[in-house]
Write the structure tokens for this entry.
Amino acid sequence: METDPTRMCELLVGLPDVHILGVDDDVNGFVCIYIESRAQRPGCAHCGVFAQVKDRSPVELVDLPCFGRPARLIWHKCRWRCPEPSCPVGSWTEEDPRIGAPRMAMSDRAGRWVTEQIGRYARSVNEIALELGCDWHTVNDTVIAYGTALVDDDPKRFGVVRALGLDEVLFVRVGPFRRQEYSTQMVDVGAGQLLDVVPGRSGVEPTAWLERQGKEWRDKVRYATLDMSSSYRLVFTTMVPDAVQVADPFHVVKLANTKLVLL
């Protein structure tokens, strides 16, 4: 059992190789944890001379909630300078991806957590933002950064798709006049799984997406479902010509109802 107060604080914070400078539990409703790196003095990447500390700039990162309260990690990042006058490097800022990724407004552990919450457990971005006490865009940008890396690392995540569906969705309303922006969803109809989302509702982006999957993958598609859109029909005819095209029942009935003549 640890009894040293400083070490206990470090264990509770749970970050590697950092000094805990202090904790403030009442900064605009946040718990603020102030840290600095315990890393050894680096050498200049260009000339190898040991660097000198130029200054320390506090960087605020959104962190995981602490005992049920939103938290902020204040990282006093060290800015190093090369003391060699002839060296062209000048100065640079320390980086530690275990604490926070470069140019991100959220700590690494918080970034991984929000990505799992939204990607695995289908929680909304707004819900997570409220829990962490931060802006919607902070969470969304983090999920894009971490989630894209996960998607790119698994190019075969789709597996074999026998029944492929395309459908348009009103994605967002933009600007003062609330201009409608649509997206197209690619769905594995058999598994009920969303495969991907591309911008627009024309056939351009879905065609490009199917092209990227390769001919071997496309040849395994046996059924293609759509809402009788001429654009989507052209996509399927061009990219999966051997697949049986199936119109979904909702749009079939909707079209039939428009043709009824009231007597």
Observations:
- Residues 1-100 form one domain.
- The chain has three domains: 1-100, 103-154, 163-257.
